[in-house]
Specification:
The chain is an alpha/beta fold. The chain has 2 domains: 8-251, Rossmann fold (3-Layer(aba) Sandwich); 254-292, no CATH class. It contains 11 helices and 8 strands. The chain has helices at residues 17-28, 50-61, 76-90, 113-140, 152-155, 162-182, 205-209, 221-228, 268-273, 275-278, 282-286; strands spanning 8-11, 32-36, 65-69, 95-98, 144-149, 187-195, 238-243, 247-251. An 8-stranded mixed beta sheet has the order 3-2-1-4-5-6-7-8, with helices on both faces. Helix 1 (17-28) packs across helix 8, helix 3 (76-90) runs parallel beside helix 4 (113-140) and helix 4 (113-140) packs parallel to helix 6. It starts with 7 loop residues before the first strand and ends in a 6-residue tail after the last helix. The model has no long low-confidence stretch (mean pLDDT 89). Belongs to the short-chain dehydrogenases/reductases (SDR) family. Keywords: Oxidoreductase. Pfam families: adh_short. Residues 7-184 form the Ketoreductase domain.
């Protein structure tokens, strides 16, 4: 008996890296998998639809069930295509993992409009495009689980990734709203913030400087399996961070109790006077009240 017996999973960006690891693990656990990947370089230029097929062939060689999809998920037609393949081949859409992404890193003063638009389109709009048909189906068919991929670059920040960080922060916000709207339909929403050594991240400074501390894709996949399986119960609306340096942990926005000013008659200087009630101290941050 597998944890995902009888389930149908749709995974974007599954032709390599994290998505490939998810697809293979899900298939071993009994899921039928739609493996989506446009293929091509990590900056989103070009395409190589054979990448998805190679993962499908590997899954089938192990006795699993899978079908390849090479659609561009940053379009509504592409997102619909991934869903349509799930229904056409397997009749259901129980799990969606929005994993596809690209990188076009630049410091902000060097950034171009084209790089900004492309990264936002693939990550944030792509998550929207793939989620819409699946969410609607789940709403009418008893629910399901959606995992949206964010990043500490969006939740905390990272040098040189304004476009990527903005997209990943937007995905977190999208997930928060979907969790509220999907709850009564038994649609569970997770946000994942993975830190893994893949072809997307291999030349990033933090991995080049300390590659031994990084997890590979197979080190992230068990957490995603937990999210989409019955092991996670009815949990929804949560962010799970998974990385080598910090392990597996829930991440939350933290806020102070705050100072309540009068409706009128207060000024900017009052914020200074009540700073201890408004701002986290360094000691509180060290004790666990991290910025996120």
């Amino acid at each position: 008996m597998g944890l995902l017996d009888g389930k149908v999973a749709l995974i974007t960006g599954a032709g390599g890296g994290l998505g490939e690891a998810y697809a293979k693990l899900f298939a071993r656990e009994g899921a039928s998998v739609v493996v989506n990947d446009l293929g091509g370089p990590r900056d989103g230029s070009g395409a190589d639809k054979s990448m998805a097929q190679q993962v499908v062939d590997a899954i089938k060689a192990e006795g699993g069930k899978a079908v390849a999809n090479g659609a561009d998920i940053s379009t509504m037609e592409g997102g619909q295509s991934v869903f349509d393949d799930a229904i056409r081949h397997f009749g259901r859409a129980d799990i969606l993992v929005n994993n596809a992404g690209i990188l076009r890193d630049q410091t902000f003063h060097k950034a171009s409009e084209a790089d900004w638009d492309k990264v936002i389109k693939v990550h944030l709009k792509g998550t929207f495009c793939c989620t819409m048909p699946v969410f609607r189906w789940m709403r009418e068919n008893g629910g399901g689980v959606i995992v949206n991929t964010s990043s500490t670059s969006g939740l905390i920040g990272n040098f040189g990734q304004t476009n990527y960080g903005a997209a990943k922060g937007g995905i977190w916000g999208l997930s928060n709203v979907l969790a509220i709207e999907g709850r009564k339909y038994n649609i569970r929403i997770w946000t994942l913030a993975p830190g893994a050594l893949t072809r997307m991240t291999a030349d990033l400074p933090r991995y080049k400087e300390n590659p031994g501390a990084a997890l590979g894709p197979d080190g992230i996949a068990p957490a995603v399996l937990y999210m989409v399986s019955d092991l996670s119960g009815d949990q929804t609306g949560k962010v799970l961070g998974v990385s080598g340096p910090r392990g597996v942990r829930e991440m939350r926005m933290m806020e102070m109790e705050g100072w309540k000013p009068p409706h009128t008659g207060w000024n900017a200087q009052d914020i200074v006077a009540h700073a201890k009630e408004i701002f986290f101290s360094e000691e509180q941050i060290k004790m666990g009240a991290r910025r996120f």
